[in-house]
């Protein structure tokens, strides 16, 4: 069906037909509807969604000028012109919100709750367990190691030519329990998942 023959009543039929089109036909359809080409590497499902959106915008009318301006202004507050886009915050994929992490350190018990946006401890929100571990200990710690979620790097990890661990960051490895003085050995990490 040619683009000039379409009417709003044809939308459902045209959207259903998108799944039958080849990739080349979908790309051509998008170009016909929008006047611009799709990015070179796009998955088929996303191409179908883009063509479907373009089709609906063409037949029913896209966003009005005021709405487009509001969206552009909102994007500009997030990524000002000339600035690189912010790096997406690494999402916590291992721990589910509501999980409690409990760690004993120097005779005191510390409890951290996993949230959707990070971690809560001592009435404050933190973006990482490392921030909390460093606040508790006053020294550099990997938060995942401190709370017993991740094992520390092996003590026999070879150093590079500069004497730094293989990761090259120059930070010393977290001490293993074998290297902790006896009076601190009761501070072994405990994790309670709940």
TrEMBL record:
InterPro entries from the entry?
DUF2924 (IPR021322)
Q: Looking at the record, which segments are called Disordered? A: 157-194
Which top-rank group of organisms is this from? Bacteria
Biased composition annotated in UniProt, kind: Low complexity: 179-194
A Pfam family of this chain:
DUF2924
Q: What is this protein called?
A: DUF2924 domain-containing protein
Supply the source organism's classification. Bacteria, Pseudomonadati, Pseudomonadota, Alphaproteobacteria, Hyphomicrobiales
